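Schema walkthrough. Field components (list of strings):
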Amino acid sequence: MSNEALHGHPEVVTTHDVHHDEHHVHHHKETFITKYVFSQDHKMIAKQFLITGMIWAVIGGLMSVLFRLQLGYPDQTFPWLEDILGRWAKGGKISAENYYALVTMHGTVLVFFVLTGGLSGTFANFLIPLQIGARDMASPFMNMLSYWFFFGGSIVMISSLFIQTGPFSGGWTAYPPLSALGDASPGSKTGMDLWITAMAMFVVSSLLGGLNYISTVLNMRTKGMSMTRMPLTMWALFFTAVLGVLSFPVLLSGFILLLFDRHGGTSFYLSDIYIAATKTALPNEGGSAILFQHLFWFLGHPEVYIILLPAMGMASEIISINARKPIFGYMAMVGSMFAITILAFLVWAHHMFVTGLNPFLGSVFVLLTLLIAVPSAIKVFNWLTTIWKANIKFTPGMMFALGFVSLFISGGLTGIFLGNSTLDIHLHDTYFVIAHFHIVMGVSAFFGMFAGIYHWFPKMYGRFMNNTMAYIHFWVTLAGAYLIFWPMHYEGLAGMPRRYLDYTGWESFKQFAELNKFISTVAIIVFAVQLLFIFNFFYSIFKGRKLTKPNPWGATTLEWTTPIRPGHGNWPGEIPEVHRWAYDYSKDGRDFIPQTEPIGPNESHH
Amino acid sequence: MTTTGILLLAILILGFLITFQIAKASEYVSVLKGEKKAFEQNNRINAFLMVVFLVLGLIGVWWCNKALYPKTLMPYPAASEHGKNIDTMLMITIAITGIVFLITQILLFWFAYKYQHSEKRQAFFYPHNNKLEVLWTTVPAIALCILVGFGLFYWFRMTGEAPADAMQVEITGKQFGWIYRYPGKDGEFGKKYYRNIDEATGNQLGLIWRDTTIIKKDRHNNPVGEAKLKADPQGFDDLVDNTAMYLVKGKAVKLIINSRDVIHDVGLSHFRLKMDAVPGTPTTMWFTPQYTTDEMKKITNNPKFEYEISCDQMCGNSHYAMRGIIKVVTPEEFILWKAKQKPAYALAFPETVATLAQPAAPVADSAASTQRHP
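Field assembly_structure (string):
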């Protein structure tokens, strides 16, 4: 492997690199296209992912504001909505068709395009080479392709919003037969074909990226950077990539079979169907609609951890830095992430307890699902011990990391309800589920992402983001997230089903009208505060307070040994050598000891 | 755009501008004051807010429970025996997770406040402790084993075989409503075939009432074979109804759940149960109703109370309105109700009811629906 080439003869390699860099600086004037558009620099690709992800987040968030308007005020019309949205809000009201299109797109966009593409894409690209000490990814070209497939998928997904029959509207899980039959739902006509195309491109992007992250972490670590000296962000992003590479192809295969059912006349998922709208009995016999759910959730559950692990890794790193204290139980943190990665593949059927799954099989999945709470508990207790007797600096990154832990606890505990089939049979597909997954993988992953953005923004742009706006952003979002999702648990305990746009016709669920209004109002406020964050981000790129020293947080890791604005290749001279783990904070009376510092003769051993 | 829209937009923009100006000003102030001093002040404020958030949050949790608990199903007894088990399980889980929630959240925000930065102190270098780590691996593992144990005990009770004397009701989901079917006097459901569905002649389930030959067509409407169906007399006395499902208090019922088009879900929140309706794959679920609808009206103090069936699986644009009703009645009321019902066959062919004993003559029209092209 290239370890030999990288580590065996560092002199040879680095001389070459130095030459290369000088060459770079003096002779290759990069054009706008190669620097900002078809860039192969991992840092620029990371920024492309981040900004595309932010645009998607605004679109996805705006969708939720629109359908929250309908949920909060089902009996009112908003004529000004029609002025802005045209046929999406005829007469100032979101129709059922558009409501379902909005919830479907909201889910798809946020789960895949923001919290997978935007989160992993940004931070795996940005941090992996910088934190392991590499000049770029294993294959910068593949990395560039990964972004452009993501971009292409985004364009196709966006375009589906503008077609005659509307975008796909059968829920982000796209269960057939609903997603297979255009006669059963107008959104399942062309909209679904575009949805599948966009998702296929997204899977390709995710695989190109994931393979790159894995090979970079395994092969391109600098001298002295053994796997167990890597910061936890690296472990988290590495496990994330492994999860993605092993599970996304299964999702793609499920989509391909769905395409065959839609256009090829096959019956993988279809059987015994009579469509009342066209008074037709379909020719398909012998398929199983449940097969798709197995294929979908075989990705779908690991996907939850694809979203969460990067947030966990970044929170671990940021908490340790700002607590000025080593992360407690480094090996236990790595071990628990490994356990989560393995178990993530063995729990998918807990989404299917009420599909008629064999009860014995269900019981196996109950056991495995609740087992995954053990590594999660270890992580929480380790974070708590990390801030015990610490010396905490409340930087915006730190606050979001602490918020992440709080939300992860709250949302994780309700997972223990839903993973238990006995309770799931009552709570499945109610607002309890909405509350659970929005807290544990929606908002908490967002908090991990915000923590990462505030923390590494100085490395990305050589400037700080504005602190006051950041603090407002944090407190309003944290309080807002709890105000929105905490009461939803009670709606779930009343059995209130998800994906209803109007509950006024239901004797059992209409008592929550006031609460729905309240939730919608808070959601709008929280969304507005996210716009403040977006403003802060772009404003600070150009006008933020400038960095005066390369290591503003006093961190030990390698990315802070690069110049304030590193060029392509990251280090102007040799890649630094690593002599210790990443968490020597407050050791032997010193505030921090960088990874690049050799172990001193009198240093205490831990 | 109307005035409200413009007004809202104006307020929003104004809010932004003010926030932005304050944010910019505070940055200048921090430069004037010195970065260190500004940092210390911010740190103190945020550490204090952590505790404020914790206290307000815990009060909020209590207050939210007080306001919303009465609106859930929990103040009333579950309407089925299974539901009572589920409520017990819910309480056990709330107790265990509630304790963990309180401990961890209090520690998190309290530590954040207590260990805020101070120049006088240095953080405690504490990288690991194997004893502690083993402790918080085993304690959660034991707690979860308890939850798994209780959970599976109840799970197997609920999903086990229905009692032998359970009455059977078939419920079929369609876009967007429910079809209920009861076996007639013979206690058996008649056979059905989905290509035999013909709503125009009142055969919404595709029961095989006549000897029929159905020409199978592929999606391009080309014939690809035929299905010879033999009339099933067991289906002649089946009751098919769309208005409500009638169940008997204290009598176990086994639901046979089907779907005619996409996946639906029979959601019975008062009984604490639900099960998907999957086209092509029948599922089942059994339970014993404990209270009649009238009794439940008194228990919930709501004269409009109904046992509602909510579709809990996204099934299309009218998913939110796919409402069914279960009427739980006394055995006497059930007999009276059943006596008034006419079998679907009798409703479809009133003239042949008299000669029910003989197999009816084949009618070519019954296959007509399948010959139409979309």
